[in-house]
Amino acid sequence: MKKLFNILFIILLFSSCEENVIEAIHGCFDAQACNYNPDTTYDNNSCEYESCADCLGVTNGDAELDSCDVCQGDGTYCNPVNLSFGDLYYNENEELVVPIAIDSPQSISGFQFNLTENDIITTAEGGISEEYGFSLTVDPTSEESSNLVLGFSFTADLLPSGINGILTNLTVIPNGSQVCFEQQDNFFIKTVNPNNEIDLIHDAEDGSLDGVIQYQINFGDCKEISTI
Prior knowledge:
This protein is of the alpha+beta class. The chain is built from three helices and 15 strands. It folds into two domains: 41 residues, no CATH class; 147 residues, Immunoglobulin-like. A hairpin with a 5-residue loop joins strand 4 and strand 5. It is rod-shaped and about 100 Å long.
């Protein structure tokens, strides 16, 4: 009988111990980690910090990509520069004046655009370019670039983002019944620090490391001269 009592006592003792055992909760113990579990009682070295990192690499940070995939950008990098023709007219010397209109979300440090081959641009003056101190170059005597306009600033000035108006006024000797933009060899650029994130994105696309951002251009329709 005494032996049976001892056996029952041992069984009850072990049963009581099992009821008081606290099961360890394995997990991440670091409150800064993405997978932190406040109920963890045993750190199993499973902490990770990347799945909840923001675009700057900060765990649980709030920096976000904009609509152009630029970290903390303003959503304008991928928006194109819009170029079109204003209302054509003849000046007092009976020269055809072709206003070039611009609508740009980008700030610009230099540009180049062309009219249709065989159109001859004799002058480029006035407009927003002149207002911001840009120098405009045309070469009506050149066989290869008489239809080209080059604009830049000797003092590193910028055409600011958000400009909307007449970029410059051209006097043109046309080769046909309308004026049109040539779709090749045009650029609107901004020079930046080569480590600028937007420049790095652009360089990844074109394979360069030049510290220059080249924006897309939307060209307006041709303009009929006969409607003047």
